[in-house]
Structures are given as C-alpha cells and as structure tokens.
Amino acid sequence: MPIPELTAQQQQQLRGYRDLLLERNTRVNLTAIRDPEEVDRRLIAESLRLLPMLDTYCANGDEAVDIGSGGGIPGVPLAIARPAIRWTLIDATAKKVAFLQDVVNALSLPNIVLYHGRVEELAHEPHMRGRYRVLTARAVSSLPALLELGLPLVRTGGTLLLPKGMDIAEELAAARQAAGMLGGSIVSSDVLPDAGTGVDTTLVVVSSEHATPGTYPRRPGMPARSPLGMPRRGGEPDQDATKSHVERT
Predict the structure, then answer these.
(1) Nearest to 192 by CA among 160, 164, 226
(2) CA angle 30, 69, 148 (to 5 degrees)
(3) What pTM was estimated for this model as a whole?
(4) Cβ-based burial of 147 (10 A; exposed 0-12, middle 13-18, buried ≥19)
(5) Using CA atoms, how far apart are residues 172 and 142, in angstroms rounded to an integer?
C-alpha cells in the first residue's frame, strides 16, 4: 500500500494499524472486512481520499474530531498522515475505545486523544463545544443526524467532512433544511475523484456559519430516531423534531 506523499514511517504506521485492526477484529467486532488488502483499499485508502479537503480546511496546529470512530476510520489514518493536526476520536463503545487506545500506544500517536461517550452528551460539554476546526464521520448516521451531532462541536467557520454513498438525494434535501436550524450550510456534495479503490464516494462538505442553538444536539438517540428535516409518514417534514429538545434531561 505505497502512498507517495507519506513518509516511510507513516507507511509503516498504517501497516501496523491494519495488522492491529485485523488481529483485534477476531475478538471485537470492528469491521466486516477480513482481508488485509481489502482493509488497505476500502478503509485506509478511502480514509486518505479526504486528505485534499482536510488540507483545505485544517492547518498544522488545528484541532479535528472524528465522531463514531469505531475501529478508527477515518480518524486514525488521517492522524497518521497529518501528525501536526491534533485529533479527538469519539466512540460510545468501550471496547472500541480500548482498541483505539492500544493503537495510540503501539504506534506512538501523541496527536490523538480519545473520548468514550455519546456525542449527544459530549457536544454539550463546554470544553468540547465549538472547539474543532474540522469534523469527520463515516457511516455513522443519516446526514441530518450527522449535522445535529457535528455542528455543535465545530467552531464558527469550521467544516464538516462527511463521506457518504451515491444515493443520498433524500438525505441531502433534509440535511439542507436541518443545516439552517443548526447554524450551518452545505457547501458541496461532490463525488470524490477516482483513487483506484473501487468505491464511489460522495463527500458532503458543511460549513458552520454561526453557533448552533444550545438545545442541540437533542438527548441520546433522538437525532437518529427523528432526524431534523426528514419527512414523517404523512410526508410532511418532522416539525416535532425541532421541539423535542425540551425532553432533554
């Protein structure tokens, strides 16, 4: 898996990460992919496809956050590729966070900090809210839910980089409505250039225009169960979703 722009040490760290992921995956469900070459292609190389956009919006010394990190995709490969960016990785599953801690220790990645918890709760913590320059998330939830979880964490002028599949028209329409409620706007939703991975990816780029209202994100589970802007069964946008924040405890 040679990647010309990375140093030999970074290439070695990526291989080490892949091997740790596959070894731990025999005991903890981190990925459905079992083949080393497929991990290189579909997980690591796909993560690194975000580098041009990451470099556009995030400079050395900035802070970035990856939510729903799971086995570390895309946060770990990006942290390896850009060691001068300080990364926070968040996941709600203790075993996955324990694995990520082992990765940080084994590969000597001092630019990664880990949090075990729900983003719905962590995003209300004063030391995390409005802190980050860039946020990434992969295969975590629908676009409206990702905006509700992610926008409160980024500073005004910050950016969400959200890789998704190709069939996202309905999600995108709802996300445009949700963005307006949350202080953001969708900048672009373009298909990433082919990188030989065999995966078609749409990268949704979202900008934080002003601070997200303090009532968001709603209580754990609500952003996914009742996404802002998504139609209810009757076909109308779920206006109740904008009111349900009063149920937070």
Answers:
(1) 164
(2) 135
(3) 0.90
(4) buried
(5) 9
What is the phi/psi pair of residue 231, to 5°?
A: -70, 145
What is the rounded CA–CA span in Å between residue 247 and residue 196?
47
Give the number of other CB atoms < 10 A from CB of residue 188: 11
Residue-wise burial string across 90-108, b where 16 or more C-beta atoms lie within 10 A, e elsewhere: bbbeeebbebbeebbeebe
pLDDT digits (tens, 9 = 90+) for 136-160: 998 778 999 999 999 999 999 999 9
Name the CATH superfamily, with its identifier, for domain 8-247: Vaccinia Virus protein VP39 (3.40.50.150)
Number of Cβ within a 10 Å radius of residue 197: 17
- Amino acid identity of 71? G
pLDDT at 231 over 90: no
